[in-house]
Amino acid sequence: MFLDYFQREILKQKVLFDLKKLKDRRGFLKAGFPRYNRLFGRDSLISAWQLLDKNPGIAKATLEILSQYQGKVINNEREEEPGKILHETDLKLKAHPEGHFPFPYYGSVDSTCLFLILFSFYFKKTKDRKFLNLHWENILRAVHWIEEYGDKDKDLYLEYQRKNEKGLFHQGWKDSFEDHLKIEPPVALVEVQGYQY
Known about the structure:
Blueprint: H1 2-22, E1 39-40, H2 41-50, H3 56-68, E2 88-89, H4 111-126, H5 129-134, H6 136-150, H7 190-196
Antiparallel strand pairs: 1-2
Helix pairs in contact: 2-3, 2-4, 3-4, 4-6
């Protein structure tokens, strides 16, 4: 019994230590430590969602930084579209270290839906109407992206197909530069339809 308690305490301290290494000075969690250690839309949103009950400030900081970098224009090299939430950026670098694409890069089909989901859970948890009102336009732009750009063929499914030949071929949670799934684009991943719903 003492050993179980001791092991739980060690694990808890390790998690807290790891969170300190991952937490940016602005309050959001970076992902991909130690190889990447940068802001990823999907990963940072899911981590913030998982920690919402313990620390809603991480969700607020994540929503804030992603709102600042929300897509504004159509840029195929970045795969940016108005209202889209980024896939990845390094706030210190102008481009991916391996030269795949410039930062911020928006090649993610699910970050925008997860942004809206986290906003709804954050508000439900905190009732922070001031923050909600401050970012209402970001929320509306994200919804517009889903309707206008995420579902180009208007079949009510969110799809992706890369626009930058050096970008991610697959743009869901199992993202990859290679076509490891052997699916002909455009691709409508099932979990993304669940997020949209």
